[in-house]
Amino acid sequence: MPSLIAACKFVGTTSLGLFTGASYSLAALSIPALLALPSAKPAHHVLISLKQTASLHLRSLAVVSLLSFNLAYALSPARARHPYLLWTSLVAGLAAASDLIPGQSLPSQDQDDVNGETVEKAVKSSQTLEQARATIGFAGFAMAVIGIWGDGA
């Protein structure tokens, strides 16, 4: 049983670390690069595609982390139920729920006439959201690493 608990902690920490890294790379590299595209239409299509794909993967990583930390807490004996597992799980849940925050709405993918200013605002809004998501993820990742180090697991 102790190895299952340690595995849950490891999976939760790793998935939260991947979540943080992916959010950071979206905020720092991928999303700002869309502003360098020659016109608004390709930037619009790429932004919609990027947001849909990234959202699916980021939400999956956050949910895996949330479930892993909750399972580690539930399986731990009473003397080893460290509150950091719940706090880290809560942060992973906040990271997963960050998709529910309404951002700059874009016209549908099928629409041909796209305003460059609207796309620029949506790109900036998406970048801000990803920066916030990366910060939340980093806070959870730091708690998980410190908690695992403190447990000795």
From TrEMBL:
UniProt KW Amino-acid biosynthesis keyword: no
Keywords: Membrane, Transmembrane, Transmembrane helix
Cell compartment(s), UniProt: Membrane
UniProt xrefs under InterPro entries: ATG33 (IPR051668)
Highest taxon above the source species: Eukaryota
Membrane is among the record's keywords: yes
UniProt name for this protein: DUF1772-domain-containing protein
Species of the source: Aureobasidium pullulans
